Amino acid sequence: MGSLKNSVSKSVKTKVAGQTQDDVVYCHIFDAILEQRLPPATKLNEEALAEIFGVSRTIIRRALLRLSLEKVVDIRPNRGAIVSAPSVNEAQQIFKAREVLELAITELAVVSATKAQIAECRKLVEEENAAFAKNDYGSGLRLSGEFHIKLAEMADNAPLLAFQRSIVSQSSLLIAMYETGNHSNCSQDEHTLLLDAIENGDKDVALELMKEHLEHIRSKLNLDGNNASNDLHVVFSDVLKNKAS
Q1: CB 67 within 8 A of CB 26
Q2: Closest CA to 30 of 138, 132, 133
Q3: What total number of domains does the chain contain?
Q4: Triad 3, 22, 176: Cα angle to 5°
Q5: How many CA atoms lie less than 13 Å away from 40 in the CB half-sphere?
Q6: CA-to-CA distance for 36 and 130, rounded, in angstroms?
Q7: What's the CA gap between 3 and 99, in Å, rounded?
Q8: pLDDT band at 6 (very low <50, low <70, confident <90, very high)
């Protein structure tokens, strides 16, 4: 058993060059949530996760704390951690807040965006397209969120940027948990058109495109349930396969 754990630890350490064990465990769990492999309210048992990844419970706790700060995991005193499960009402509040925030950001971005920032956002859209083309939904969703954070950077307003980081993280969780369909991605065209309007300085068009984009995201949500597994060993079967090899 010890040698098996060592082989997994080695795999975790070297999965991505330069990442620590904390980083890789965090990414595995976050990906599982974003890719809908971990449903809402799933208990994240520290002992089971430590055994699966071949790391200490201290590392698992640090990863779970990091996820809790991003509001995708809830840590309950004396009861452990679970995947966050926002209610329908909470989801509506999150998206209403996001609508107000994104429109304010878009209006400011039309005035403040630089050519370099727009070029950087266009590169993000290309990376997002490539992720979805490879059926890498988790990466695609993260890149989409990063695109919206970059828009907030264009607005050149520090409080709005801080709020955007939090709201995008929460929105990504809701999308990952409740989006219906086959995860077909239409947002890359919407992102490109939005960038075009910002680059052209057309505020009215940019605001209308942002409203349509947010409505498109909201229209794909189904908060009635989720068929993913809540068995940690099923969710992380790929890690266990690496461990056995």
Answers
A1: yes
A2: 138
A3: 2
A4: 110
A5: 19
A6: 20
A7: 51
A8: very low
pLDDT digits (tens, 9 = 90+) for 34-64: 666 787 888 999 999 999 999 999 999 999 9
Across 90-98, average pLDDT: 89
Do 58 and 100 belong to one domain? no
Same domain, 195 and 110: yes
Same domain (yes/no): 73, 110: no
- Same domain assignment for residues 178 and 125: yes
Residues 61 and 119 in one domain: no
When pLDDT is averaged across residues 197-204 and rounded to a whole number, the result is 97
**Domain housing 95:** 88-219
Same domain, 61 and 12: yes
More confident residue, 102 or 175: 102
The dihedral of CA 54, 239, 40, 97: what is its sign?
positive
Q: What is the CATH number of the domain that holds 95?
A: 1.20.120.530
User: Buried b vs exposed e over 205-225: b needs ≥16 C-beta within 10 Å?
Assistant: bbbebbeebbeebbeebebee
The answer to whether the beta carbons of residues 98 and 171 sit under 8 Å apart is: yes
Structural tokens at position 25 = 């465990």
180 touches 222 (CB < 8 A): yes
Residues 80 and 97 in one domain: no
Residue pair 35/83 in contact (Cβ under 8 Å)? The answer is no
Assess whether 57 and 105 both reside in one domain: no
Query: Left (φ > 0), alpha (ψ -120 to 50) or beta: where does 39 sit?
Result: beta
